[in-house]
Amino acid sequence: MEWYLKALKSYAVFEGRSRRKEYWMFTLINMIISLVLALLSFGTLESLYALAVFIPSLSVSVRRLHDTNRSGWWLLIGLVPFIGALVLIYFFIQDSHPGLNQYGPNPKEESGYYSGSSGEGDSDDDVEVVVLEPLPDSDRKE
To answer: What would the mean pLDDT of 66-73 be, rounded to a whole number?
Structure first.
């Protein structure tokens, strides 16, 4: 439930990245709520709920695409009947792009920084992190 609420709290944030877990938990809980409302035949309530979660669904989908190092405009491929939905599902089940990408740091990594190779042989994806610490008072030159 925390992943669902996290996605709702950042309902209009189309920047950054979302983990697979955040996307799929949001989708699962969203589908369960919609199913319960449909079974209880609250058509009006179901429509209002669908309208209320439309923007959060778009934003979490865009952030999920960002996590796989793709533009949010890839959502438009879903307009292609059948094939578009399959392509989007494929994108959504892929693992995160390792480390920093153009959309921000990897949300799976605690520090948000990545050091090392992406495993594909591209040294351009490597990010070196340098931590500068102040010298102790006794080592400073006056």
So the answer is: 95
Please give the tally of structural domains in the chain: 1
Supply the pTM of this predicted model: 0.72
103-108 contacts: CB < 8 A, separation 24 or more?
103/15, 103/16, 103/17, 103/63, 103/66, 103/67, 103/69, 104/15, 104/16, 104/17, 104/66, 105/17, 106/17, 106/67, 107/16, 107/17, 107/18, 107/19, 107/22, 107/67, 108/19
What's the pLDDT score for residue 68? Answer: 95
In a domain? residue 141: no
Residue 80 belongs to what domain range?
2-96
